[in-house]
Design a protein that fits this description.
Layout lengths: L7 E5 L6 E10 L8 E5 L5 E4 L5 E4 L17 H7 L12 H12 L4 H8 L3 H9 L6 H11 L3 H4 L17 E5 L2 H8 L3 E8 L5 E11 L2 E6 L12 E10 L4 E13 L3 H10 L12 E5 L3 E9 L3
Antiparallel strand pairs: 1-2, 1-5, 2-3, 3-4, 6-13, 7-8, 7-10, 8-9, 9-12, 10-11, 11-12, 11-13
Helix pairs in contact: 2-4, 3-4, 3-5
Protein backbone atom coordinates (compact mmCIF):
# COMPACT_ATOMS: atom_id res chain seq x y z
CA UNK A 1 0.00 0.00 0.00
CA UNK A 2 1.38 3.37 -1.06
CA UNK A 3 -0.16 6.82 -0.81
CA UNK A 4 0.43 10.51 -1.46
CA UNK A 5 -0.57 13.45 0.66
CA UNK A 6 -4.17 14.32 -0.11
CA UNK A 7 -5.17 10.75 -1.02
CA UNK A 8 -8.16 9.27 0.78
CA UNK A 9 -8.00 6.29 3.13
CA UNK A 10 -11.23 4.29 2.99
CA UNK A 11 -12.15 1.55 5.47
CA UNK A 12 -14.90 -0.72 4.18
CA UNK A 13 -17.06 -3.38 5.74
CA UNK A 14 -15.83 -6.84 4.66
CA UNK A 15 -19.43 -8.08 4.55
CA UNK A 16 -21.12 -5.35 2.54
CA UNK A 17 -18.26 -3.53 0.85
CA UNK A 18 -19.75 -0.25 2.05
CA UNK A 19 -17.55 2.48 3.41
CA UNK A 20 -17.48 2.61 7.20
CA UNK A 21 -15.08 5.50 7.48
CA UNK A 22 -12.90 7.65 5.29
CA UNK A 23 -10.41 10.43 5.74
CA UNK A 24 -7.71 12.50 4.05
CA UNK A 25 -4.09 11.42 4.38
CA UNK A 26 -2.39 14.51 5.78
CA UNK A 27 0.94 13.06 6.88
CA UNK A 28 3.42 10.48 5.60
CA UNK A 29 6.04 8.78 7.75
CA UNK A 30 7.99 7.12 4.92
CA UNK A 31 9.29 8.67 1.71
CA UNK A 32 7.96 5.76 -0.37
CA UNK A 33 4.37 6.40 0.78
CA UNK A 34 3.98 3.20 2.80
CA UNK A 35 2.07 3.10 6.12
CA UNK A 36 1.54 4.37 8.71
CA UNK A 37 -0.33 7.57 7.82
CA UNK A 38 -1.68 10.59 9.62
CA UNK A 39 -5.36 10.68 8.65
CA UNK A 40 -7.88 13.47 9.14
CA UNK A 41 -11.23 11.67 9.46
CA UNK A 42 -14.14 13.20 7.57
CA UNK A 43 -16.67 12.46 10.32
CA UNK A 44 -14.79 14.01 13.25
CA UNK A 45 -12.04 16.18 11.66
CA UNK A 46 -9.62 14.54 14.12
CA UNK A 47 -6.14 13.52 12.98
CA UNK A 48 -4.87 10.13 14.12
CA UNK A 49 -1.97 7.81 13.31
CA UNK A 50 -3.29 4.87 11.29
CA UNK A 51 -1.78 1.48 10.44
CA UNK A 52 -4.24 0.32 7.72
CA UNK A 53 -5.58 -3.20 8.03
CA UNK A 54 -6.94 -5.58 5.35
CA UNK A 55 -10.28 -3.73 5.28
CA UNK A 56 -8.63 -0.47 4.19
CA UNK A 57 -7.61 0.81 0.78
CA UNK A 58 -6.29 4.01 -0.74
CA UNK A 59 -8.41 6.11 -3.07
CA UNK A 60 -5.83 7.99 -5.12
CA UNK A 61 -6.59 11.48 -6.36
CA UNK A 62 -5.42 10.63 -9.87
CA UNK A 63 -8.28 8.14 -10.07
CA UNK A 64 -10.92 10.53 -8.83
CA UNK A 65 -9.55 13.94 -9.61
CA UNK A 66 -11.98 16.87 -9.71
CA UNK A 67 -13.37 17.82 -13.13
CA UNK A 68 -11.12 20.16 -15.04
CA UNK A 69 -7.85 19.16 -13.39
CA UNK A 70 -5.38 18.11 -16.07
CA UNK A 71 -1.66 17.77 -16.66
CA UNK A 72 -1.57 13.99 -16.38
CA UNK A 73 1.96 12.51 -16.51
CA UNK A 74 3.01 10.84 -19.78
CA UNK A 75 1.70 7.29 -20.13
CA UNK A 76 1.39 4.86 -22.99
CA UNK A 77 -1.24 2.65 -24.56
CA UNK A 78 -4.66 2.19 -22.99
CA UNK A 79 -3.46 3.65 -19.71
CA UNK A 80 -2.81 6.95 -21.46
CA UNK A 81 -6.27 7.03 -22.98
CA UNK A 82 -7.86 6.26 -19.63
CA UNK A 83 -5.88 8.71 -17.51
CA UNK A 84 -5.52 11.79 -19.70
CA UNK A 85 -7.83 14.60 -18.65
CA UNK A 86 -8.17 17.82 -20.60
CA UNK A 87 -8.98 21.01 -18.77
CA UNK A 88 -11.35 23.40 -20.56
CA UNK A 89 -9.88 26.84 -21.01
CA UNK A 90 -10.99 29.42 -18.50
CA UNK A 91 -12.45 27.02 -15.93
CA UNK A 92 -9.88 27.73 -13.23
CA UNK A 93 -10.92 29.66 -10.14
CA UNK A 94 -7.99 29.31 -7.77
CA UNK A 95 -8.16 30.23 -4.12
CA UNK A 96 -5.62 32.55 -2.52
CA UNK A 97 -3.44 29.76 -1.14
CA UNK A 98 -3.33 27.92 -4.47
CA UNK A 99 -2.49 31.10 -6.30
CA UNK A 100 0.39 31.85 -3.91
CA UNK A 101 1.67 28.29 -4.32
CA UNK A 102 1.58 28.59 -8.13
CA UNK A 103 3.32 31.97 -8.16
CA UNK A 104 6.06 30.83 -5.78
CA UNK A 105 6.56 27.63 -7.78
CA UNK A 106 6.97 29.52 -11.06
CA UNK A 107 9.19 32.12 -9.43
CA UNK A 108 11.59 29.33 -8.43
CA UNK A 109 11.44 27.70 -11.85
CA UNK A 110 9.91 24.47 -10.58
CA UNK A 111 7.56 22.28 -12.57
CA UNK A 112 4.36 21.06 -10.98
CA UNK A 113 5.68 17.49 -11.03
CA UNK A 114 8.97 18.42 -9.33
CA UNK A 115 7.15 20.45 -6.67
CA UNK A 116 4.77 17.56 -5.99
CA UNK A 117 7.71 15.15 -5.71
CA UNK A 118 9.47 17.41 -3.21
CA UNK A 119 6.29 17.82 -1.19
CA UNK A 120 5.53 14.09 -1.39
CA UNK A 121 2.06 14.55 -2.84
CA UNK A 122 0.19 13.65 -5.98
CA UNK A 123 0.72 16.03 -8.94
CA UNK A 124 -3.05 15.87 -9.43
CA UNK A 125 -3.64 17.16 -5.93
CA UNK A 126 -1.20 20.02 -6.52
CA UNK A 127 -3.00 20.80 -9.80
CA UNK A 128 -6.31 20.86 -7.97
CA UNK A 129 -4.88 23.07 -5.24
CA UNK A 130 -3.46 25.57 -7.75
CA UNK A 131 -6.49 25.69 -10.02
CA UNK A 132 -9.50 25.38 -7.71
CA UNK A 133 -10.50 26.82 -4.31
CA UNK A 134 -9.18 24.39 -1.69
CA UNK A 135 -8.53 24.17 2.05
CA UNK A 136 -5.29 22.19 2.43
CA UNK A 137 -4.36 20.83 5.82
CA UNK A 138 -1.50 22.18 7.91
CA UNK A 139 0.58 19.10 7.11
CA UNK A 140 0.14 19.75 3.39
CA UNK A 141 1.11 23.40 3.77
CA UNK A 142 4.21 22.50 5.78
CA UNK A 143 5.43 20.17 3.05
CA UNK A 144 4.64 22.68 0.29
CA UNK A 145 6.41 25.47 2.15
CA UNK A 146 9.47 23.28 2.59
CA UNK A 147 9.42 22.26 -1.08
CA UNK A 148 9.19 25.91 -2.19
CA UNK A 149 11.66 27.32 0.30
CA UNK A 150 9.08 29.58 1.92
CA UNK A 151 6.90 29.55 5.03
CA UNK A 152 3.39 28.41 5.85
CA UNK A 153 2.59 31.97 6.93
CA UNK A 154 3.60 33.27 3.50
CA UNK A 155 1.44 30.71 1.69
CA UNK A 156 -1.46 31.66 3.93
CA UNK A 157 -0.94 35.36 3.24
CA UNK A 158 0.78 36.12 6.53
CA UNK A 159 1.73 39.59 5.29
CA UNK A 160 -1.90 40.66 5.09
CA UNK A 161 -1.34 43.35 7.73
CA UNK A 162 1.60 44.82 5.84
CA UNK A 163 1.14 47.62 3.30
CA UNK A 164 0.54 46.24 -0.23
CA UNK A 165 3.33 46.33 -2.76
CA UNK A 166 6.08 44.67 -0.73
CA UNK A 167 6.15 41.60 -2.96
CA UNK A 168 8.62 40.98 -5.75
CA UNK A 169 8.30 43.26 -8.77
CA UNK A 170 7.54 41.68 -12.15
CA UNK A 171 10.58 40.91 -14.28
CA UNK A 172 8.96 42.48 -17.34
CA UNK A 173 6.13 44.79 -16.25
CA UNK A 174 3.81 46.53 -18.65
CA UNK A 175 2.04 49.78 -17.73
CA UNK A 176 -1.10 50.54 -19.70
CA UNK A 177 -3.30 53.61 -19.52
CA UNK A 178 -6.96 52.86 -18.89
CA UNK A 179 -9.78 54.33 -20.93
CA UNK A 180 -12.45 56.43 -19.17
CA UNK A 181 -14.90 53.54 -19.58
CA UNK A 182 -12.46 51.08 -17.99
CA UNK A 183 -12.01 53.54 -15.12
CA UNK A 184 -15.78 53.74 -14.62
CA UNK A 185 -16.01 49.95 -14.62
CA UNK A 186 -13.35 49.68 -11.92
CA UNK A 187 -14.95 52.45 -9.87
CA UNK A 188 -18.26 50.62 -10.02
CA UNK A 189 -16.81 47.73 -8.01
CA UNK A 190 -17.29 49.97 -4.96
CA UNK A 191 -15.31 49.39 -1.79
CA UNK A 192 -12.82 51.77 -0.21
CA UNK A 193 -11.21 54.76 -1.88
CA UNK A 194 -9.18 57.76 -0.75
CA UNK A 195 -10.31 61.35 -0.99
CA UNK A 196 -7.70 64.13 -0.98
CA UNK A 197 -8.90 67.40 0.54
CA UNK A 198 -7.54 70.64 1.96
CA UNK A 199 -8.44 70.97 5.64
CA UNK A 200 -9.67 74.12 7.36
CA UNK A 201 -6.12 75.19 8.19
CA UNK A 202 -5.07 74.77 4.58
CA UNK A 203 -3.13 71.56 5.02
CA UNK A 204 -3.66 68.60 2.68
CA UNK A 205 -5.19 65.37 3.96
CA UNK A 206 -5.94 61.99 2.38
CA UNK A 207 -8.70 59.99 4.06
CA UNK A 208 -10.06 56.50 3.18
CA UNK A 209 -13.84 56.29 2.79
CA UNK A 210 -16.41 53.66 1.88
CA UNK A 211 -17.88 54.85 -1.38
CA UNK A 212 -20.52 54.11 -3.99
CA UNK A 213 -20.48 54.86 -7.72
CA UNK A 214 -23.94 56.02 -8.74
CA UNK A 215 -24.88 57.60 -12.10
CA UNK A 216 -21.22 58.42 -12.91
CA UNK A 217 -20.76 60.12 -9.54
CA UNK A 218 -18.64 59.04 -6.57
CA UNK A 219 -20.63 59.34 -3.34
CA UNK A 220 -19.73 58.70 0.29
CA UNK A 221 -21.17 59.36 3.72
CA UNK A 222 -19.44 61.43 6.37
CA UNK A 223 -20.11 63.58 9.44
CA UNK A 224 -20.44 67.37 9.19
CA UNK A 225 -17.48 67.92 11.54
CA UNK A 226 -15.16 65.40 9.89
CA UNK A 227 -12.07 66.02 7.76
CA UNK A 228 -13.79 64.66 4.66
CA UNK A 229 -16.64 67.13 5.10
CA UNK A 230 -14.11 69.76 3.98
CA UNK A 231 -14.39 68.26 0.50
CA UNK A 232 -17.82 69.85 0.04
CA UNK A 233 -17.96 72.73 -2.44
CA UNK A 234 -14.31 72.32 -3.48
CA UNK A 235 -12.42 70.50 -6.20
CA UNK A 236 -10.99 67.26 -4.88
CA UNK A 237 -9.10 64.21 -6.01
CA UNK A 238 -10.39 60.70 -5.36
CA UNK A 239 -8.29 57.56 -5.85
CA UNK A 240 -9.11 53.87 -5.77
CA UNK A 241 -6.74 50.99 -6.51
CA UNK A 242 -6.08 47.31 -6.17
CA UNK A 243 -2.68 45.68 -5.63
CA UNK A 244 -2.23 41.93 -6.00
CA UNK A 245 0.96 41.05 -4.13
CA UNK A 246 0.68 37.39 -5.11
CA UNK A 247 0.87 38.23 -8.82
CA UNK A 248 2.79 41.53 -8.47
CA UNK A 249 0.29 43.47 -10.51
CA UNK A 250 -2.53 45.95 -9.99
CA UNK A 251 -4.40 49.03 -11.14
CA UNK A 252 -5.31 52.52 -9.96
CA UNK A 253 -7.94 55.06 -10.94
CA UNK A 254 -7.80 58.80 -10.21
CA UNK A 255 -10.89 61.02 -10.42
CA UNK A 256 -10.73 64.81 -10.13
CA UNK A 257 -13.78 67.05 -9.93
CA UNK A 258 -16.04 69.26 -7.81
CA UNK A 259 -17.63 67.87 -4.66
CA UNK A 260 -21.00 68.92 -3.26
CA UNK A 261 -23.31 67.96 -0.44
CA UNK A 262 -26.39 66.03 -1.50
CA UNK A 263 -29.32 67.90 0.08
CA UNK A 264 -32.37 66.65 -1.83
CA UNK A 265 -34.27 64.31 0.56
CA UNK A 266 -35.37 62.01 -2.26
CA UNK A 267 -31.81 61.71 -3.56
CA UNK A 268 -30.52 60.97 -0.05
CA UNK A 269 -33.13 58.22 0.41
CA UNK A 270 -32.18 56.74 -2.95
CA UNK A 271 -28.48 56.67 -2.05
CA UNK A 272 -29.21 55.07 1.32
CA UNK A 273 -31.22 52.33 -0.40
CA UNK A 274 -28.54 51.60 -3.00
CA UNK A 275 -25.55 51.52 -0.67
CA UNK A 276 -23.51 48.31 -0.51
CA UNK A 277 -22.04 48.87 2.94
CA UNK A 278 -22.15 51.18 5.94
CA UNK A 279 -19.11 53.35 6.82
CA UNK A 280 -16.52 51.22 8.60
CA UNK A 281 -15.65 54.17 10.84
CA UNK A 282 -19.07 53.88 12.46
CA UNK A 283 -20.93 56.64 14.22
CA UNK A 284 -23.54 59.03 12.84
CA UNK A 285 -22.52 59.70 9.23
CA UNK A 286 -25.59 60.94 7.41
CA UNK A 287 -23.97 63.67 5.29
CA UNK A 288 -23.70 62.50 1.69
CA UNK A 289 -20.96 64.03 -0.49
CA UNK A 290 -20.98 63.59 -4.26
CA UNK A 291 -17.97 63.99 -6.54
CA UNK A 292 -18.66 64.43 -10.25
CA UNK A 293 -15.41 63.63 -12.10
CA UNK A 294 -14.32 66.09 -14.77
CA UNK A 295 -11.08 64.19 -15.32
CA UNK A 296 -10.81 60.40 -15.05
CA UNK A 297 -7.53 58.55 -15.58
CA UNK A 298 -6.11 55.18 -14.64
CA UNK A 299 -3.24 52.74 -15.13
CA UNK A 300 -2.82 49.00 -14.94
CA UNK A 301 0.42 47.05 -14.35
CA UNK A 302 0.55 43.52 -15.79
CA UNK A 303 3.22 41.15 -17.12
CA UNK A 304 4.43 42.22 -20.57
CA UNK A 305 3.09 39.03 -22.17
CA UNK A 306 -0.52 39.71 -21.14
Amino acid sequence: MRAHLGDQLVIESPATGGARRDGEIVGLHHDDGTPPYDVRWSDTDDVTLVFPGPDAHIRHLEHEQPPGVGEAPPTTGEAAAASTVTRPAGTGNPGDIGRRVAVERRRRGLSREETARRARMSPYYLAHLEEQPADPTLATLIRLADALGTSVAALRGGGIDLPPGQGHALLHPQIRDLSPQECRTLLSTHGVGRVAVATADGRPAVVPVNYEFVDDAIVFRTAPDSVTAAAAETEVAFEVDHVDDALSQGWSVLAVGPARVVTDPEAVRGLAQRTHTTPWAGGAREMWVSIEPTNLTGRRITPADQ
